[in-house]
Predict the 3D structure of the following.
Amino acid sequence: MDSEGKATHGEYVSKFDGKDVSWTGNPDADMASATKIDDNSYENVWKKDGKATITAKAVVSKSGKTLTVTMTGMNAKGQTVNNTAVYDRQ
């Protein structure tokens, strides 16, 4: 859902090789490039019209029970993005 409550759908397919791939349905990016950092983390740089917009970093804890995703940058509306989401496996 977007900020106005409308359903959204976005998708892309990527390898962790740092190469740009097309991303559909994301208002903040039309390309993304994912790079593996180590066995438990990767970084994904979002781009819109060739310019980096948001950097997302995903880290899975060594135990495999927690996923932390941090996102920083600027969205398509020019608003600063500085989010952290933590997911715990039940």
